[in-house]
């Protein structure tokens, strides 16, 4: 009898842990992906898996888990790391009246000639666009171009670039937790896209 009890209790506990773990499952998968080596040839399937040639965990302890917008989403680049200064784990706290810096290291799989930014908050299943000015987004947000005052966008394939954008968090935003869908596109095709669990405070 008591043995059965123990087994049932064990099962309940197991299910509870599974439920708890559901949200972090993506995170765990990403942590495993992070160890995947970069492939020289064309990236088959391009799953936005982060790839690193060195032991990245030592090099960038602040790198957040990468949560792709969709499973098996085809994108024009791979994300290598996402860093938000001041945030080591989700949800990141975004303070109203401040700007939050978003830094992405990415490696294009094709030559890139333009970038458009699209950010939405996912609130109770519906998507609300953030109003943004993304004029010349590529030249102003790719650090390698901005530091040279580049006048046009030209990114080579299989070369890692650093992207940085300061997202203004308006005072008018209500304080609440939400998922941010952060996407950079080239002419409608996704260059990279990730979800960012945040809390507006
Ligand atoms: C990448 O290319 C180099 C030289 O062509 C080769 O030695 C190395 O094994 C390749 N690495 C992978 C992951 O394919
Ligand atoms: C990781 O990087 C550190 C510093 O660059 C180096 O000393 C160490 O040997 C590396 N470890 C592995 C397993 O590559
Ligand atoms: C870019 O522009 C800034 C401000 O106009 C200037 O200080 C800087 O020297 C320029 N950098 C390069 C690499 O031309």
Can you describe this structure?
With 201 residues, the chain is of the alpha+beta class. It has one domain: Immunoglobulin-like, CATH 2.60.40.770. Helices cover 23% and strands 32% of the residues. It is built from four helices and nine strands; from the N terminus they run ααββββββααβββ. Strands 1, 3, 5, 6, 8 and 9 form a six-stranded mixed beta sheet that branches. Strand 8 and strand 9 form a beta hairpin. It starts with a helix and ends with a strand.
In short:
By secondary structure, the protein is an alpha+beta fold.
Major sheet attributes: 6 strands, mixed
The tally of helices reads 4
CATH architecture label: Sandwich
Unreliable runs, pLDDT <50, ≥5 residues? 7-38, 45-50, 55-59
Shape: globular
- What ions, cofactors and ligands are bound? 2-acetamido-2-deoxy-beta-D-glucopyranose
Question: What is the count of distinct domains?
Answer: 1
Category from helices, strands and their pairing: alpha+beta
The helix fraction, in percent, is: 10-25%
Strand fraction equals 25-35%
Give the arrangement of secondary structure elements.
Elements: H1 2-34, H2 56-59, E1 67-68, E2 77-83, E3 92-94, E4 99-108, E5 116-123, E6 126-129, H3 137-141, H4 143-146, E7 161-168, E8 176-186, E9 189-200
The chain binds 2-acetamido-2-deoxy-beta-D-glucopyranose (3 copies).
Question: What labels describe this entry?
Answer:
201 residues, alpha+beta, Immunoglobulin-like, six-stranded mixed beta sheet, three-stranded antiparallel beta sheet, 9 strands, binds 2-acetamido-2-deoxy-beta-D-glucopyranose, Ig_E-set, signal, Ecdysteroid-regulated 16 kDa-like, secreted, ML_dom
